[in-house]
Amino acid sequence: MSENNNNNPFHTDITRRDMLKVMGATAAAGLTGLSIPGTSNAAPPGQPNIIFILSDNVRYDCMGVTGHPFIQTPALDRLAGEGLLFENAFNTTSLCSPSRASFLTGAYARSHGVLNNSTPWTESMPFFLENLSESGYDTAFIGKFHLPGEGLPELPYLNEYVSFTIKEHQGQYFNCPLVVNGKEEPSNTPYLITELTDRALSYLDRDRDDPFCLYLSYKTAHFPFLPPKDLAGMYADEIPPIPGEVDPWLGKADGNVFEGTMVGSIENLYRRYCEAIAGMDREIDRVLAYLDEAGLADNTIVIYASDNGYMWGEHRLIGINWHYEESIKLQFIVRCPWLVPDAGGTRSQMVLNVDLAPTLLDLAGVNIPDHVQGTSFLPILSGADAPGRDAWFYEYYKYFPEDVPNIIGVRTKTHKYVEFEGRRKPELYDLVSDPKENNNLYNTSEGEALTGELVDLMHSLMAELDA
Question: What is the pTM of this model?
Fold first, then answer.
C-alpha cells in the first residue's frame, strides 16, 4: 500500500497521519492538548504508547461482554466498556502462524509467505515493530512467536525480546523455558501466562524518554487448555453451550485429528478452555491496573485480539482450520481515549488482522510501507458511521496432517462464497438469514443468482493482492 490512499475505503480529506504529524510538531514546540475533532479527550502530545495483546484460539463469543452464559472476563469487559468492541473482526487465514504473520506484517499469507504452520518464515518483509523502532519507539515482543523456522529470528531492533521455542514454538503452560534477548532462561514462575505478564510489567516500568510499543502474545487458549492451578475446576458445574450436532464420538471423526480433542469429553475440554481464558483475563487486568497506577492509561492505545476463533462442534468440526464464522471471527477490542467519542460502544465495520499494522503505523505518524495490504481503521475509531470495506478475500493452504484442502473465498457484509481444491463442491451462505451457515445455497436457484457476481468479486480481490 502506498502513501497515496485515494482508493482507500477509509480515506478522509484530512488523514489521521497528517493529524499525528501535526501533533508531533506541536509537541516539539512545547505545546500540549491538541484534540482531534469528534472526540472529547485531548490527544497525547507526540507519538502515543501502544500495547497490543494477542490471545490464541479464543473465539469471539467467549467473553462476558458478548453474552457468554458463564465465562467471567472482567478485564476484557472493562476494556470494551472503556473502548470499542468490534463485532466483525476476522483473520484472512484461519491458522495460527499465517494469522500471526499477518498481524505483524499487515500482509496476506500469499504475500508474507507463511502459508501454514510448517512454512518457514523467510523474513521477507519487516514487522510493524521495526518500522516503529526506526521512528523512535522503544519496542518489545513478549510471548508466543510461533512463526515456522529453526529457533527464533533475530530482531535486533527490539529493546526486549522474550519468547520460547519448546514444542515447535508453541510453548507449554507450566515451567516453560524461555529465550530472553537471545539467551535461554528458566521461567521465574510456574505458569507461563503469569510469567509473560511479569516480564511485560517489568518492561513497562522502565525509565524511558521515548514512546513504547509492547506486543504481548499469550499462549491462551491453545490446546491442552490448561488454566492456572487455582482456577482449575471453577466451571466444573457449568453447562457448556455445545451445539446440538455434537456426539461423544465427534473428537474421533474425520477432520478432527490434530487438536487432541479426542482425549476426554468435549464438555470437559470446553470447561477447561474457559478456565484458561479466565486465567488470561486476570493477567490482562494486571496490565490495565499498571497503566492506571503509572498514569499511562490516557496516552496508551490498548488493542486486544485473538488470532483465530475455535469451533466446538459446529459443522461437526473441532478446531480452527475452516472458513466458518466460528473459526475466522476474532475477538477484537480497542481502547483509545483520545480517538473514541463513544466509549463502551461497538463497531460493525469489517476489520481484518492485516489492518493492525497499518493502523498502528498510522497512529504513530509513520509512513505505511508498500507491502502492507491492510487498511488503517483509525477513522472507524472516531466515527461509528465511517465507511468500511464491503468485502474481503479469504485463503487457506493445506497443512499436514489436517484434512482440510486449499480454500479461497470471499466474505461480504451479507454473504460468503468459498471454493476448495479437489472434489468438494463450493459453498455459498446468506449470513443474514443463515448466520450459522447451515444452508449451502450453491447450485440452488437462489445461489445461482449470486454465484457469478461473488466469483468475479473473489477473483478481483485476489488479483489486487497479487498485483
Answer: 0.90
